[in-house]
Design goal:
single chain, alpha+beta, L-fuculose-1-phosphate Aldolase, nine-stranded mixed sheet, 5 helices, 31% helix
């Protein structure tokens, strides 16, 4: 794929997403910079703390345009991630991988499918891989706004408005910090 932004239309979800080119990416690129600036796109590390560069293509922002197509940043974003966002039918989503998501991943068991917060009553769905949403193997509803993807080592965050997604990400990160603290003390 060339160094341009990938577009996927909802009609392409039934098969493999067909990527289209679009030059109007300023907003998506800006959102990507904000997400990266919050250190939410950090590559995961192996057991020795070394970054794992093979996961870079799984980190990014997916944004729906007015015509129903989607623009991604970075340009060559993982197709399963894009297809999953299409299935969720949300206007904006990004991957969150940070120190707090790494700490959260270290606290869950391999068979765990959700993590409840007794303080708020909110439950964090946990799936093995983003591929499970893309393939329809698991059903995540758009009103959940987050899902922890173990294999990819990130939290997928989505929202109803592009304008509020960074604030929502900050709220989610704060909630995740509280959740990790709760787990560590109980």
């Amino acid at each position: 794929m060339s160094a341009t932004v990938a577009m996927v239309s909802w009609q392409d979800v039934s098969s493999s997403p067909r990527l289209l080119i679009d030059a109007k990416t300023d907003m998506n690129a800006d959102l990507y910079k904000q997400v990266a600036g919050n250190q939410w796109l950090e590559p995961p590390s192996d057991e020795d703390g070394n970054p794992m560069p093979e996961f870079v293509a799984t980190r990014g922002v997916v944004m729906q345009r007015e015509d129903g197509s989607y623009v991604t940043y970075p340009h060559a974003l993982n197709e399963e991630l894009v297809t999953s966002v299409l299935k969720l039918d949300v206007p904006i989503a990004f991957t969150m991988c940070s120190e707090i998501t790494t700490a959260l991943l270290s606290q869950i068991s391999p068979e765990q499918t959700q993590l409840g917060d007794p303080k708020t009553g909110i439950s964090l769905p946990i799936i093995d891989s983003i591929d499970q949403i893309a393939s329809g193997e698991v059903s995540i509803t758009r009103d959940q706004f987050i899902v922890l993807c173990k294999q990819e080592q990130y939290v997928l965050v989505w929202g109803d408005t592009v304008e509020n997604i960074i604030a929502q990400g900050t709220d989610i990160e704060t909630w995740l910090v509280g959740l990790v603290c709760y787990i560590c003390t109980h």
